[in-house]
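Example with several molecule types.
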Amino acid sequence: MPRSPMVVRTVPALRRALDGLRARKADIALVPTMGALHDGHVSLVRLAKRRAQKVVVSIFVNPTQFAPTEDFGSYPRTWKSDVARLAAEKVDLIWNPDVKAMYPEGFATRIVPEGPAIAGLEDRFRPHFFGGVATVVGKLFTQCRPDVAIFGEKDFQQLRVVTQMARDLDLGVKVIGSRTVRERDGLAMSSRNVYLAPEQRQAAPELYRAMKLSAARLRAGEPVDAVMVAGAEAITKAGFTLDYFEVRHAETLAPIALLEDGPMRMLLAAKIGTTRLIDNIAV
Ligand code: PAF
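Resulting structure tokens for the full complex:
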């Protein structure tokens, strides 16, 4: 059985562990997660291992990025299998603070990101989200001081937000995006897929199918408006309620009308029952 990675739960213990890694002149990659690890996370860890000598994975379900109406309480927590997966990947360190270690009594500072964080996509439906993400990722970066940090492209707006934040605040971290890992039928892997009832799970691959078809039509020169309306119809017909289905500039997330003005990214968020899924692809 592979040896379990070291687990630290306090900031002083984290500092000591990181000093130990750095004393060996190792460069460090951080993979921030909220646990409930799946093959998508494993691919982030594998990319981290290719980009640095030592890999730290944080597991922290961050309350500040959930609205009171959202699933913080029921978010899947699978500690034992997470540790087993990370042991199999030979991760060096797991940073697993509790809420008090991350947000001690009297905590009163927040990062309020702008630019890609107010692009009118996720932020329109989850206005609390990127403030919570930026604050916790800012803390994770200063706690771990990694050379590189790996984030999944599945949360594309989040990837843009943390990239911008690292640059704006001179955090000295290179943020690297890792491609989305999909189930065989195209559904993007997500810790929230466990919420899907069997018939919802069956409908879920329609999101990727509709995006792929719409992107192919755009590449063939069809007009953006008509293509996006048809794509939205297909998604709705499969039983989803769309929050958004849009094309944006892949770097700035600004609205974009022509493929030639790209790189173009297609992004969506849609609900089926009470489960909200997000996905995106390059056009
Ligand atoms: O993508 C996630 O899992 C979370 O938003 C992150 C980046 C770990 C911050 O809590």
